[in-house]
Design goal:
Among the domains are: 63 residues, 2-Layer Sandwich (Dna Ligase, domain 1); 100 residues, Aldehyde Oxidoreductase, domain 3 (Alpha-Beta Complex), CATH 3.90.1170. Helices cover 25% and strands 29% of the residues. By secondary structure, the protein is of the alpha+beta class. InterPro entries: ATP-grasp (IPR011761), ATP-grasp_PylC-type (IPR003806).
């Protein structure tokens, strides 16, 4: 891997807690559509097992229903899932497998995930947010709503916008606002002032004794090379403190801790993420809470392991199993890791898609390499993780492949252009994917 960047200060659970976790959960499983996040934790949690989650079967009602009466869970059997709040699939899986699902309480998750209900939580935490208001979507109110915002660009968000970013829209005029209010007619929407700045994500873990604010990443959102959706997640890259305006890294950690303390008061335990914006003058504004694991946690875990901490999956498990877990703050060199999401461009049926594994580029084509861990990638290599399988029906913007690289993919800023090397990896991945076009499902 290329040389590490400047330092970062992060908090987490010491790696010496791994023996305690293995005693508590000798049968520990990870449940997701792709093994990528569990794979980055396995260097520290070698007994962690992966089980595939079929989101499409769940959505279509084809996955097995949970037994009507939950079985008694034997001690030491536990499972975790990427987004347990997304439907009932994770809970059905855990009951069927006889596992204790390590997930935050649903009531706390519901508050945190709601783009409107989370606003009072930010207020209690004492963290700044963009100027915003809540409206009932009615296209007849477009002119007055636009005028109330002073005629400046705004961001319109649906109450629930989990995982995709498609329910977030930039509006630059009254006509666009009317279209959004018409499409989402009757819904309560959050309308916020557009704040220019660097989009960031900080990953945290709420324990009984405190909140561990882990690594900060530059969030790549709505990049036109990758998606037509303004608010869609396109990837992340870890950032060192000195790559951000002075004091921003520390302020991101403070915001994470304050929000985590409010989540704890709701009974929340475990991993979560915060989307933030760092303004040019160094202020940090909170945008939304993601009460689950985030895709970037794969990179975060490599950083945590390098810093002598338990990876986030392990910290989440201990926070769920123990009344209190000691949190440690450490300083380490920032790893230059990044990742990009390659989505579907059209409706259709997925044909070819690269197998998950390590690759290099050869004349614009993907060539398999021996398997490597994320932190061991060499220049010119990447890890590819397929998030969909041949035969799946896919929609525009749906994530097909995650590409992880041992270097930066863009300058740190608001919606930057990808580097030529990053574009080459995206282009090669797209050439390796085929979608047979078809009507929307």
């Amino acid at each position: 891997m290329t040389a590490a960047r400047g330092p970062v200060e992060i908090a987490g659970v010491g790696a010496d807690a791994v023996a305690r976790l293995r005693d508590l959960a000798p049968d520990l499983r990870w449940h997701d559509r792709s093994p990528f996040l569990g794979a980055s934790a396995r260097p520290a949690l070698p007994w962690l097992r992966y089980e595939h989650r079929d989101h499409r079967a769940e959505a279509d009602g084809r996955s097995p229903a949970a037994p009507p009466v939950a079985r008694r869970v034997p001690a030491g059997r536990a499972g975790m899932s990427f987004a347990p709040e997304d439907g009932t699939g994770a809970r059905s899986w855990a009951v069927t497998r006889g596992l204790r699902l390590l997930a935050p309480v649903r009531a706390a998750v519901a508050v945190a995930a709601d783009k409107i209900d989370a606003m009072p939580l930010f207020d209690r935490a004492g963290v700044a947010v963009p100027e915003s208001r809540v409206v009932l979507a009615d296209p007849a109110d477009a002119a007055s709503c636009w005028a109330a915002g002073g005629g400046r660009p705004v961001v319109v968000q649906r109450r629930v916008n989990n995982l995709t970013g498609k329910g977030t829209r930039l509006v630059t005029g009254a006509v666009e606002l009317r279209a959004a209010l018409d499409e989402w007619r009757g819904e309560r929407l959050r309308v916020s002032a557009l704040v220019p700045g660097i989009p960031l994500t900080v990953s945290g873990c709420v324990t009984g004794g405190g909140t561990a604010a882990s690594a900060v990443s530059h969030q790549l959102v709505g990049l036109p090379e990758l998606t037509p959706y303004w608010g869609a997640h396109c990837g992340n890259q870890l950032v060192a403190d000195d790559e951000l305006p002075a004091g921003v890294g520390a302020r991101c950690g403070q915001v994470c801790e304050r929000v985590g303390d409010q989540l704890r008061a709701l009974g929340y335990r475990g991993a979560f993420g915060l989307d933030l914006v760092a303004t040019p003058d160094g202020a940090v504004l909170a945008i939304e809470i993601n009460p689950r694991f985030q895709t970037v946690v794969s990179l975060v875990q490599a950083q945590e392991i390098a810093a002598g901490l338990l990876p986030m999956l392990g910290a989440h498990a201990l926070a769920s199993l123990l009344p209190s877990v000691p949190v440690r703050r450490v300083r380490a060199a920032c790893l230059p890791l990044s990742q990009l999401v390659v989505p579907a461009a059209a409706h259709g049926v997925l044909g070819a898609v690269p197998e998950s594994g390590c690759y290099r580029l050869d004349a614009g084509r993907l060539r398999p390499r021996p398997t490597r861990r994320l932190a061991d990638l060499r220049p010119g290599e990447a890890l590819l993780w397929r998030h969909a399988r041949p035969g799946d029906r896919v929609r525009p913007g749906e994530e097909l492949v995650l590409v992880q690289l041992p270097h930066r993919v863009a300058e740190v800023g608001d919606r930057p252009a990808l580097t030529p090397d990053a574009r080459a990896w995206v282009d090669a991945t797209r050439r390796a994917v085929t979608v047979v076009a078809g009507p929307p499902p």
